[in-house]
Amino acid sequence: MKAICVYCGSNFNGDPQMRTAIENLAQLFIDQDITLVYGGGSVGIMGVIADEILLKAGSVTGVIPQFLMDKEVGHKSLTKMIITENMHERKKQMANLSDGFIVLPGGFGTLEEFFEVLTWLQLGLHNKPIGVLNIGGFYDPLFAQMEVMVAHRFLKPANRDLVFNESDPAVLMEKMKNFNALPDEVWFKDRNLS
Length: 194
Fold this sequence. Notes:
seven-stranded parallel beta sheet; 8 helices; 43% helix
């Protein structure tokens, strides 16, 4: 993997455990010469991970729509900044530039981006690994909901298993590196969820 897209929040609650996990993830990007692709913001967790990688002379590509640049939330010191016309173009660019996706804590926008690329993977529109860095159990309720979806037969177990759920950045990155092509039974071919 040469570039990984990180979806994360534009807020940060200052949690030291979360900061440590982000710093460790940033170091893995540096050690493995991976470019960070992210939403281009200077605030929240977005700003924390970008600053951490830049501080260690790593490569960071931001992708941000013009209206957010106009609100002065765009990072001013990135390796590369791509400005798009809208949010849809932003997400498309981020996905195209990346060899995989990591989800950090965030709000509605983070979840929307996560589920979009996860759905694309389920549909066979890409074959790139997706991992959730589940810091301090932040996403435990979300994965519990996925189990409910499986129990009610709205989600196949094979599709639930398309996303890696790990609390350790190094374990998550290793699993993503070893991601294999999707088995045939995962592809969305019909509506039979048995």
